[in-house]
Fold these 3 entries.
Entry 1:
Amino acid sequence: MKLYKAILLFLGLAMIAALVACSSSSSSSSTPPPPPTIAISATAGTPQSATIGTAFATQLQVTVTSNGSPDSGATVTFTAPSSGASCTLASTTATTNSSGVATTTCTANSTTGSYNVTATTSGATTPATFALTNTAVTSLAAGNYVFFVSGTDSGAAGNGPSPYLLAGAFALNSAGQITGGQQDFSDYNYNAAAEAITGGSVAASTTQGDTNITITINTGDTNIGPGAGTLGDGSGTIVLDVSMASTTKGLAIEYDTWASGKGELDFQTSTGPLCPSASSTTPCSYAFGLGGVDPYELAIGAGGVIEVDSVGGISGNGSVFDINDFCGNYDSETQTCSGASFPENAFTVSTVVSPTSNPYGFVTFTLNSSLFTSSPGIVLDGYIIDANHIRLVENWLNPTTEACNDALCSTTGGLALAQTGTGTFGGGSISGSNYVVGLSGEDVNGALQAAAVLDFNSSSSSVAGQLSFNDITSQNAQGGEAITGGTYAIDAPGTGDTDSGTGRVTVTGVTDTAADFLYNLQLYLTGDGHALVISMDAGNTTSIPDVTGGPGWQQTTGLTVGSLSGNYAYADDTFEPTSTGEFEVNDVGVITSNGSNAITGFIDENATIAGGTLTPGGSLSASYAATSTNGVFNVTGNGKNQTPFTAYLVDGTKGVVIENDDVQLTLGYFANQ
C-alpha cells in the first residue's frame, strides 16, 4: 500500500472514531424534556353565600391544565372543614372532562360563618380555593308552619295573670304574609279550641346585627292579646320572636306586652291523616309529655305512650300513662290539697280524629281511662308537624256549658313523638346509654329547673351521671353534683301486661352523696335517641316534692370543648324573684362559640311580665371550660357578677344550660344554626 493511502485510511478511521465518540457523549449527557406543569384553579362558585341548610346556587367548578392546555381524566379531591361553618359535598372526588373541568355541589350545614373549601389534584402545588359563607335564616319560605309557646300572660278574657299554652299552624305566602291558620289557646281561666288565624306577617328584625325573625299572628279573638285584661278589649294579636336554627326549625319567645313564653317554630311537612294504616298488627305509637296547672292552679305533669291500633282507634293495648299532681288529693271539707302521683295507668277505648278538610294538620285525641270518674278523661288538640312530631294543647273547656270538657280539666300542653320499635322496647333500649334532660316546673319553694346527664349502667340497674337543680332557695354549685344513687327499670316486652314493651323507663331515687336532691322520673323513649320526661314526686314525703317535665336526648360520647363550636339559636326561660313572687322573663337570640373558651352573641328579651320592657339586641359574653364529665361545661358570664352556668351538651348540635346561683332561675336550650 502506498504511504499516502495508508495515511488517508488512518485519518478516515480516526474521524469515524471521533464521530462515534462524540455521538456517544452527546447521547449520554442530553437533558430529558421537563415534566408538564399541572395547575388547578377555581373557575366558578366562588365567592358565594347560601342560607344554612340549603345548597349553594353555583356548583364548585375547577379547571385543571397541563402546560396550559386542558387536562382530561385528572382526579380532583374536594375538602370542606370538618367542624364549625362548613358544607356537605355531594361528592368529594370528581374526574375532569375533555375541557379539564370537574365539579361538585355543596350544601351549607347548620352553622353560620365564612370558610374555604379546597380542591387538589396530583401534580398541582397550589390548591384551588372556594370562599363560601353560610348565612342565617332572616325570612321564611312559603308554606305551613306549626308554632308552640308556653309561659305567663297578663290575663285573658278580663281575668288576671295566668300560665298559658298556645299551639297552632299558619300558612305563609311568598310575600311573607300569613293567609290563614288555626290555633288553640289555653290559660287557667280561658280556653279557645281550633280558632281561626285571620292574617299576619313575617319580617326580619330591624335591629342592627339581630338576625331574628318577627312573626305577627292576627286572630279575631278579643279575649287574648294586649288589652285582654279587660273583657272583650284584647287585640287578638300574638307576636313571636324567632331565632332560626335551620331553614325548618326555630326557637321562639312571645314578644309583645301581653305575654311572655318560650317555644318553637317548625316547618310543617304533613297535615295527616295520622296513622292511616294502623291495625292491631301494625300499630303506630307516640310518646307524649304534658305540663301545666291543674283545676286548682297547682302544677301538674302527665306523660305516657299512646298506641293507635286501628284507623282512628285506640284500644288501650300497648298504651300507658302517668300523672304527677300537686293537688292529686283534694279535701272538699277543708278545701285543701295534697300532692299525689298516679303511675302506670291504662287507657280504655279511645279515639284519634282529624277533620275531613284539614289544611293545618289538626288532630284530636280523646283519651279514656278507669283512673277518671268520667269520660272523656283527657282531650288533647294537636297540630301535626310531620308524622313524627305533634304539638299538643289540652282542650279542657266546653264553650257551650262553660264546664269542664274532660275529667283532667287542666291547663296543659306539650309534645308527642312517634316511636320506632313499638311494643319491643326492653333493657337494651336504655342500658349503657347517657341521656341529657332539661326539666322545668315547680316545687314547694316555687319555680324549679333541673338539667342532667343520666348514665344508665349497662352492667346493673344503677343510675349515675351529673345533675344541676335550682329553685332559688337552694341550688347545686356550678358543674353540678355527681349522681351517686338511683335505679332504673324498663317495662319489658312480652310480660303479658297491656303496656309491655312501651319504652316507659322508671327511674327511682336519683340523688347525690349529700342528698341535696331526690328525684323519681319517668322517661318515655322514642327509639331514635329522644325521650320525654316527667318527675313523679308530688306526693314525696322524704324530700321536697316537685312537678317537672321536659325533653331528653341520647348523648354522644367523646365531647370536648371543641365540640361546642359555631353559631347556635338560643332561647331560655328565666324567673326573677321579687318580694311578691317570681316573674317570667324570656330571651331568644344567637350564641357563638369559638370552639375553645369563649361565647358571644345577642339576645332579645321580653321582661314585660316582670315589669320590664321588650329589649332587642342585647349583647352577651361568657367563657367556658370542660369538667371531668363528658359534655358538661362550666360557663361563666363576663359581666361584673360573673354569673355561673352549667351547660349539658347532647352532641355538637344542641344542649341545655342552667344557672347556678340564687339571683334568678334560667334554663336555656341551644341548637345549631
Note: Residues 1-28 have pLDDT under 50 and may be disordered.
Entry 2:
Amino acid sequence: MSPSHLKWIQPLAALVFLAGCQKARMTTVEPQPTPVPVATQVQPPAPTPIPPTPAIPLPDSHRHKKKHHHRPIIIGEDPRPPEFHPTPGEPMDPGGEFDTDIFRQNSQTGTETSTKGGKNKVDWFEQDHVDPRLKKCGENCPPEKPKQPKIVESCENVKLPSAPTNKKLDVLFVVDTSASFFDELVKITSQMDEFIKNLKPDVDYQIAVLPAHGPKGPYFGRIYSDVITYRGIQGSRAATAQLVDTIKKLFSDKSAKDPSYSIGETGMLSLYASIAMKSRLNENLRKGFYRDDASLAVIFVADENDACYQYKPGETPHMDDYGNKKEKLAFEKECVYHNGRRFQPIHVAWRLNELKGNLPVIITGLVYTSNNIPKTSGKYHKEKELGHGYLDLIEGPGKGLPVDLANPDFGASLAKLGQFSQFRMQYPNQYSCVTSVPKKEIDLDSFKITLEKNGRTLGVFYTGCKSDPSKCPAGSHAAGAERVQKNPYVQIAPNMDAFHKLARPGATLKMSFRRK
C-alpha cells in the first residue's frame, strides 16, 4: 500500500479503537441514583467541646534531661474531681463516708493529686485547699465554731510592804514524842539557840510545844506546859533554856505518855485539833497562844513519817510493827476526818489559813527529806523514815521549807529555819488574785507574775513552769496557783527560794492570766 493510502487509514483505526473502548465501559458501570438537592440534606450535630483536664506533671523518666519544671495546671470551665484507682480488694471508701465535694473544691483551687509515696495518697499543693474529712453526720453536721483567742485578764496589783506588817510571831514546835526520837531530840535541843539567834531582835516572840499525840493522848491538840514569851535578842538565852527544859520535861513526864495507837506520831492531826476543836482552841488561847495579831510559824520535828500519811500507789508502806500493829490501827481508826473521810495534809493548811487570815503562816520542819538516812543500831533502827505527810504539807499547800534531819549540823539547820521564819514575817508566801473573772474560768497554768520596783523588773514567775519546767523561759521561776476553799479568789505562790532573793520592800507584784 502506497504511503498516500496510509494517511487516512491511521485516523480511522484510532476511531474504531476508541469506539470499542466506550462500548466496553458502558457494559460494566451501574446506573447512579438521582442526586438530592443540597438544600434538603440533614446536617450531623456539631461536636460538644470537652473542657481540658488539669495537666499532671510527667514522671521524671519522661522528661527531657534539661527540663526540671512542672507543666502548668490548667483549670477548665467545668472541672471534674480527681479520679482515684484503689488497689483491687482494698476500696478507698468502703463506708461511703468520703466527702467528694471537697475534691471538687480542691480541683477548683488548683490542687494536684499524686500516688507518690503510697496508695491513694493525695498531695495538696495549694494553701487554700480544703482538707479531706470523713463526715458521718451527713447534712446534720453542726457548723464548726471558729477558735477564739484566749483573753488575757489581769489581777489587781499587790504592793509588798516596806516593813514587816507586824512585829509579833508565835512559834509552835510540833514534836514527835515516840521513844525512837529521843536521841535526835537531845542533840537538837543542845543547839536550839541557833534558831533563836536568827530571829529579828525587835520582834515580840512566843514559843510553845505541841506533842504529836493521837486522840487518846492527854495533850492531843493541847499546848504542853507554859508558853515561852520574850522580846528581842536580850532574852534569847533565857528563852532557849526554857524551851530546852520544856522539851526534856515532855519526854520524862509520865503523865504525858500517849496511849493512842500512834504513840505520839500524829503531828498533823494534833495540830489540826489544836485549832479545829473549839475546846482545844479556847484552852490554847487562854494560855496566850495563837494571838490574833501575830504571825504563826509551825515547825515539825520528827524522825519518821506522820502515822496518818496515806501511801500512794507504788510506794512501799513503812509501818512500825512489834507484833501489835499499832501504827496500822492508828491509820485505820484515828486518822479519820469528818464522815469517815481520810485525813489529809490539805485539811491542816485550810485551818491554819482560816485561823490567821491575811497574816503570814510559816510551815517548816526538821525531818528526813531524802532516803539518805544515817544507819543506826538498836531497837528503833528501822523507824528512821522519810518524813511523808509532813513533807506533803510543808512543800505542798504550806509553801514552806523542810530541813533535812540527816544533816548532823543541827545548829545550821535551826539557823536556816530561823532565817526563813523571819523573812516570811515580812512577805507572805501566797497572794490572792483579785479579779471579776469566776474562778472556774481561770486557767491556772497561764499565770505570769512580774515583780517590779521603780519601773525595773526584779523577777518573773510562771505557773506553767511548775507543771512543765521545759516551758519555763530562761531566767524565770516557777509559781503555783490553786483555788482555795472558802476563798473567792485564786491563790498564787511564787517559788519561795527565788522570791526571798528577789523581793524588795515596796515592790509591786503584777499578775495576769488567760481564761480557759
Note: The chain has 13 helices and 14 strands.
Entry 3:
Amino acid sequence: MLDSFIRKIGVFALLIGLTSCALFESSSDKSDPTVATVDGNPITLSELKANFHNSPATMTPEEDDGLALKEFLSLYIDYKVKLAAGRDAGYFDSEDILRELANYENQSAVPYWLEKRVRDELLAELYERSKYEIKASHILIQLSENASPRDTARAYNRLIEAKQRFLDGEDFIKLSEEYSSRQRNQSMGGELNYFSAGWSVKPFEDVAYNTPVGEVSMPFRTQFGYHIVYVQDRRETLKDRMVSHIFFNTRGEDQSVEESMERAQEAFALLEEGMGWDDVTQNYSDDRQSSQTGGSIGWINTSRYSADFTDAVFSLETVGQYAEPVVTEYGIHILRLDSIRTFASREAEMEHLYERLRQLPRYRQNQDAVLGTVKQVGNGRIVRASVEALENFLDATPQHDFNNQNWDEADELLSMPFYTINDVTYTVSDFKDWLLVQLETENGNRYRFQHLDRFADHAAREQLVSITKQEFEEFAQLSRDYLNGLVVFSITEDSVWNYAGLDTLALKALYEENPEEYWFEQRYRYVRIAAMADSTLLKVKDAVLEGMPIDSLRNEFQGLIIRRDIINSLSSFPFSEMDGLAVGEFSDIFEYRRRQTMYLMEEILEPRQMTFEEAFNKLVATYQPIREAEWMERMRAKYSVHSYPERIR
C-alpha cells in the first residue's frame, strides 16, 4: 500500500495548498463574476485566481491563463464540495481532527512569533554588530544558576573590587588571574581574541558591544557565572578567508618543532620550484583529512581560532598567494589564500546572516523571549492581594509546606483570582493544583517565590495559540486552512481510499473484467550475499554448491548479509549482474554498498496471471479513482453544483 500512502500524502499537500487563500467573501461586482456555486454559495473569479496561484498543483504564472483556470475550476469545486460534505458529516467536530489541529497550532505558534517578531529584531542586531569586531579581556567568577543570594552577592562585590583596582591603575590581565575562577588549574578569564557577533553567548556579547573602548563594564550574569569585561579595541570586521594549508604536526612524541620546520621548509622549497600545490600537500601534510581535498580547511574568521593563526591567515591579501611556514599553537602551516568572502547584494548577505542566526542558541532557544512577549501582549499580571493571602495562609506551617496544608478550610482563598492573561482568570486553586504537580518532580514541598514566574509562563503557554491568533490574522487563517485540509483529507480517506479497499464485490468484478491487467511477467527469485572480503564469498559459494542450505550460512560465516527477494527486470544495476544466469548459478563478485557482493539465481518464475489476493493492492489503486468519480458525482448533485467556466477570461 506504499503507493497509495504516497498518493494520500500528495493529495493532502494539495488540499492544504488549496486552503491557503480559501473562503474569500464573494462579490457581486460584474468585474468579479461568479464562476460556480456550491450549495448556493458562489465561487468568484478572484477567489478562484487567488487559490490557483497558491496551489502546488498549478505552476502557471500568468493570471489570465484562462485554459489553466478552467481546468483548475473543477478541482476547486470538488474541494468546496468535500468541505460541505465534511461539515454535514460532523468532521469539523471530530475529536481526532481537533486534536491534530491543536498539535499543529501548539507546534507552530512559537516558531511563528520567532519569524514575525523575534527573528527580524535579532537579524537586524546581528547585521549591525557583524560590521565590527571587539577585542576584550574579562574576569569570570563561576557561579551556578541556583547559587544562593549570599554567594551571588559575594561574586558581585569581588568583581566591583577588581574593577576599582583596575581603575586605580592595576593591570587587568593580572587582576583576571587573581580574581577569575580556575578550571584544570587555568584561569577561566583572561584576554580574548577579536570576536564578532554570534561568536559568544548573547549576554556577554550584549555587554561587550555596549561598553566603550577603554572602559570596564559593571558585573553581569551569563550561564557561566558573573563577569566584568574590559573592551580594548573595536575595529571593522575583516572579511572571512577561504584557506588551504599544508600542515606539520609539532605535538607528536617523535616530531620536534625543529624537525617539523625542516620538513616544512623542504615542502615550501618544492612549491617555489614549481611543484603543484596538491602534490606537495599529499606528500607532506600531516592533516590527512584535508590533504585529500587539496588542504582546504574552509572559511576562517577571527573569532574561532587563536590569534597567531588568524594573524597569519589575514596577512594573506591576494587570492592564490601562499606564505612561508608559520608556527602557531596548532603546529606549523604553509597557508594559501583561496578566496575572500564577498556578497553580490545586501539580500545575499542577509540570507547568509540568517543561516548563521538559525544555528545560534539565541534563536533556537528563544521560547522564553516569546513567552515574555506573549505575556505583554496578553496583559498578563499577578494579583498581588491573592499572593499575599496565600502566603499568609502558608505561614501557618513551617517553611511554607505545600503538601501538608488543610485546603478543605480554604474555599474562599482558593476561589480568589491569582493570575490573569488574555481576559482569562486563573484562581489560587489553579495555582495550587499546578504547584503540587511541580513539587512532585522537584522532590520538594516548599513554595518559592520563583514559582510565580513559572506559573505565569505556564499560563502564557496555555493562552499562546489564542493570543497568537488575535495578534496575527495570518496565523488564524493558517489554522483555519489546516483544519479545512484535515477535514477534506479525512472525508476523502473514509469515503474513497478506505472504502475502495472494503468494496470486495467491486474489486472482484474489476478483476474478472480485465484479467490481462493483473499479470506477472517473467520474474527472478534471487539471493543476494554480501561480505567484507572476496575470500569469504568464495568460501560461501563452495559451501552452497556442496549442499549447505542458505539459511545455515550465517551460522558458519560471520558478518554475512543475506537478502532474498523477487525482481521483475534485470536491466538495471545491480540486478544486471544476474543477466544470463541459470537457476543455481552465482554471479561474479562485485562491489555494492561498500561490500563485496554476489547473487545466486534461485528460481526463474514463468509469466502467469495474479490471483485475486496477489492483485489486491493493484486493484484497489485502480478502483480508487473510479470510486472517487462516482462519489463526487453524487456529492455534486447533493450540493447543487453549477459551473460557469465560460465566465473565465
Note: Residues 95-129 form the longest helix (35 residues).
